[in-house]
Amino acid sequence: MIKSRCLRDFARYSSLNVLGMIGLSCYILADTFFVSKGLGANGLTALNLAIPVYSFIHGSGLMIGMGGGIKYSVQQSQNEHKSADRTFTNAVYLTAAFAAFFVLLGIFFSSVITSALGADESVFAMTKTYLQVILLFSPAFLMNNVLLCFVRNDGAPQLAMAAMLIGSLANIVLDWVFIFPCQMGIFGAVLATGTAPVISMLILSSHFIRGENRFHFTKCRPSGKLYAGIFAGGIPSLVTEVSAGAVMIVFNSIILRLEGNVGVAAYGVIANLSLVIIAVYTGIAQGIQPIISRSYGMRNAADINAVLRYALTSMLIFSAVIYASVFFGASQITNIFNSERSAVLQNIAEEGLRLYFTACPFAGFNIIISVYFTASERPLPANIISLLRGFFVIIPMAFLLSQLGKIRGVWCAFPATELLTAVIGLVFLIFITKKRGAIAKEQ
């Protein structure tokens, strides 16, 4: 009976979050498709150069939302309702501070950032436009991520999924309208992307209008202790997203040197498909987070272990299906984005897809156990895993393998990093599982 309930909760939360995260990732994928059709290789290059900034904004929102959501879920399971309200309020304070920072960057430093990202004269104007508008819409991206996490932890995963999917659908429709009938170019693409989280928050507002929310904004002072707790639980999510942006900057720089703008455009196909595939694993991980946090607060180790098994099994099945689809469909996938029918872009992207996505099962494992550690208030191993795969291994690996294997080395850097990190993560998991078992026997 307990196993049946646990499996049912896992299927409900994870399936809804996978669908929602895939929808959310379509923000940028839709831009990639419509920009490639409307603006060609230069538009695709400009988009790919600017995407890392979106990763920084999205990661900051996830950090606050996941960190706050974990604390909120544990506090609610222990009937600490006033503390839960203070957690939400302090999460909103943090969101406002981060939003002000990103908006100021957009107003005063967009040209400087565009130059630093490596945009040349042919793509500078388009890159700057995309970058600046994304930064000015940052309050919407940040608050949407925070509300999604809290609503999901408040027992409404269906509403969170609906908000993500409807926002993404609106983004896709507006992309087409702004780029083609309205002829708004790159500005139209980024305006559609910025509008999507606003629509998502309108959907989420029904949770408050109907009075179903158990979290409330309350009068309280900013708390350094609460901020520390939110950061501790949310930093792995931030590192995952920010590192994706940092890795894209490094990869863009290396590929520009090896293959020029066409190589960066080819990487744009791979990187944007990666957003969708990683979203599957992130959806599974975010789906298990409320269940694990609740079970941890109630000291229910059996449910925690069962949910982790379900998550890892699902991940392996998804990985097999995803890689088979990428391997056999590499040509068709590249054709979708190769509007100018460039033979060079086609060859680079096809080979890159088949090499890059051998990382699937290792990346999925790393993402799931990182969230598993944070959801059960063990931030240290989660932070180590996130930092290794996000910065300390992937960046040196990219430079090393690009020297040894040129562009093929660049594609192999991602799977090599995820494999190495997965081995370290497995060691952490075995150690913590044995330690928990020993404590349980003593009790």
Give a brief rundown of this model.
With 443 residues, the protein is an all-alpha fold.
Summary keywords:
443 residues, 14 helices, globular
Coarse structural class: mainly alpha
Distance between the ends? 25 Å
Share of β-strand residues: under 5%
Number of helices: 14
Report on the biggest sheet.
none
The averaged pLDDT comes out at 87
- The poorly predicted ranges are none
Helical coverage, percent range:
over 70%
What is the H/E string? Answer: HHHHHHHHHHHHHH
Radius of gyration: 21 Å
The total count of strands amounts to: 0
Shape: globular
Can you offer a commentary on this structure?
By secondary structure, this protein is an all-alpha fold. Helix content is 88%, strand content 0%. It has 14 helices and no strands. The protein has helices at 2-77, 81-108, 110-116, 124-136, 138-153, 157-179, 185-204, 206-209, 224-297, 301-337, 343-356, 360-375, 379-392, 394-442. It is globular, with a radius of gyration of 21 Å. 57% of the residues are buried.
Write the layout of secondary structure elements.
Blueprint: H1 2-77, H2 81-108, H3 110-116, H4 124-136, H5 138-153, H6 157-179, H7 185-204, H8 206-209, H9 224-297, H10 301-337, H11 343-356, H12 360-375, H13 379-392, H14 394-442
